[in-house]
Amino acid sequence: MTEIIGTDQISVIGPHRVKHGDLMEGLDDLMQGDKVDIFYSDPPWGDGNLKYWQTINSKMNGVPYKTINFDEFLNAVFSCMVKYCVGISFIEYGIRWENKIRELATQFNLSHNGIIDIKYRGGSKFLPLHLHILSKDELTLPVGYADLVQGTTGMGTLRAAVTPFAKAGFKILDPCCGKGYTAQIALETGMVFRGNEINEKRLAETIKRLLKNR
Predict the structure, then answer these.
(1) Number of other CB atoms surrounding residue 136 within 10 Å
(2) Residue 105, helix vs strand vs coil
């Protein structure tokens, strides 16, 4: 059963919860005191990409364009990670911002446990991307883990990166969950999903995934 809670537009589908909201306004209403074991996000890369997705949201949903400061946005992503995740965190991010992600990891007292080269589809080509692996305490990745993840793309990256750390009943959070790739991995591994997305039509795809597999 799907339940919409008040004006916060939080959908409850079985054990899963998703919010149609702005990360910049916080996720306490979504989380309701929960902590997660895994954090995974592919937030917009850089100021230009952030503006692009705000434009897409405005056009797709007929809502006013919202100007969001890039540095404040990325700080909000890391603040969310530190506040809610007690385990391992993953950030997919463009390679030109490697130093920025490392700086934020230091700023938020996180252990930066490595970068794995992955790919994303840009039109008809596959282009380089970084997967950053973070945690509050230093961790050792499983033997062969980097080889398993390296060169993957899209859902393949999520499956390769997350599955070795997933356990049934674990909670996983994606604060920019888009169409629900992270939700799909949660379903496949028996985890409980928490997600947030500012684009209502993209979030509807996440909700469809959760409803289909409830």
Answers:
(1) 16
(2) helix
Sign of CA dihedral 39, 45, 46, 49: negative
pTM for this structure?
0.94
For the chain, the domains span 2-212
The residues, any chain, with a CB within 8 Å of residue 102's CB and separated by 6 or more, are 112
* Residues 6+ away with beta carbon under 8 Å from 204: none
H or E segment and range at residue 207: helix 200-212
Contact 183, 177 (CB under 8 A): yes
- At 169-205, the pLDDT tens digits run 999 999 999 999 999 999 999 999 999 999 999 999 9
Residue 4 has pLDDT above 90, yes or no: no
pLDDT per residue as tens digits for the range 24-65 = 999 999 999 999 999 999 999 999 998 988 988 889 899 888
Q: How far apart, in whole angstroms, are the C-alpha atoms of residue 155 and residue 181? A: 6
Secondary-structure breakdown of the chain: helix, strand, coil percentages, each rounded to the nearest 5? 45, 30, 30
Q: Topology of 2-212 in CATH? A: Rossmann fold (3.40.50)
- Would you give the distance in Å from CA 106 to the centre of its chain? 20
For the chain, the C-alpha Rg in angstroms (whole number) is 16
